[in-house]
Amino acid sequence: MPAPSRSLLIAELKRTLREQGLTYAQIAKALKLSLPTIKRMFSREDFTLQRFERICELAGCSLADIATRAHERSTPVRQLTLAQERQIVGDPKLLLVTWLVINHATMEDIVRDYRLTGPDVLAQFIRLDRLKVIELQPGNRVRLLISRHFSWRPGGPVQRYIYEKMLQDFMSSSFSGVDEEFWFHGSQLSDASLAALKRALHAAARECAVIVDSERAPTRDRRGAAFVLALRRWSYAGFAPFERK
Fold first, then answer.
1. Backbone angles phi, psi at 134, to 5 degrees
2. Entry pTM
3. Could you state, in order of their start, the residue ranges of all structural domains in the chain?
4. Around 54, how many Cα atoms within 13 Å sit in the side-chain half-sphere?
5. Three-state DSSP class for 77?
6. N or C, which end of the chain is more exposed by having fewer CB within 10 Å?
7. What is the band of 161 on the pLDDT scale with cuts at 50, 70, 90?
8. What is the rounded average pLDDT of the residues 76-87?
9. If DSSP states are collapsed to H, E and C, what string results for 108-171?
């Protein structure tokens, strides 16, 4: 595992201090240094190893803990754990904010468009920061920690929720509007052709993700949209009585 940079280590230490409610004034008193000296150390990222470890102790952790957390935050997450997904779907408010921040909504966007206050949103941001979905930055800005190729766990809590709730709602449309499209086609396929279709769908999904990630229009000019790509071995159950066994 490559060692995190000095900046990443100090950023993670600052985050830990905030979580523990430790102020620079308290650290200065414990280290018997002036408050300006402590502020200067953090702003210039100028620490001796001994002082860094001492501050870690005050925060109830070790340098190794800070390094591990910093590494995890610097490595894009491609998939969450079952426990993380259960937390997200277990709280409607957290699920909503997760959905919005993955789609690059800011706190201002969420407060404007939903019946959530700034403190409501901040509380969910903090939870997502702890789940390592985002990094909460100064000014209540967020940086996504998930990979561009992130996906929910197959058959996991979020995917089941999407299927049972979101997809059912999404499909309750005639898809006849001028800005709607719906394609459905089925056929008898060999394993080789099925594999080729999977590759084509993966390529289409990546292209769609690039389009979504490249959205730069003001949020006031955006409207909700969704798309679905799906493929599986499937035969219509209604035809089963006519099949030759």
1. -135, 165
2. 0.66
3. 6-74, 174-242
4. 14
5. strand
6. C
7. very high
8. 88
9. HHHHHHCCCCHHHHHHHHHHHHHCCCEEEEHHHEEEECECCCCCCCCCCHHHHHHHHHHHHHHC
Paired tokens of 44: 């210039």
**What residues contact residue 32 under an 8 Å CB cut-off, 6+ apart?**
none
Q: Tell me how far apart the alpha carbons of residues 95 and 137 are, in angstroms, rounded to a whole number.
A: 20
Q: What is the CATH number of domain 6-74?
A: 1.10.260.40
Helix, strand, or coil here: 235? Answer: coil
Q: Where does the pLDDT of residue 1 fall: very low under 50, low under 70, confident under 90, or very high at 90 and above? A: very low
End-to-end CA distance of the chain: 55
Q: Which residues contact 145 (CB under 8 A, 6 or more apart)?
A: 73, 76, 77, 132, 133, 134, 135
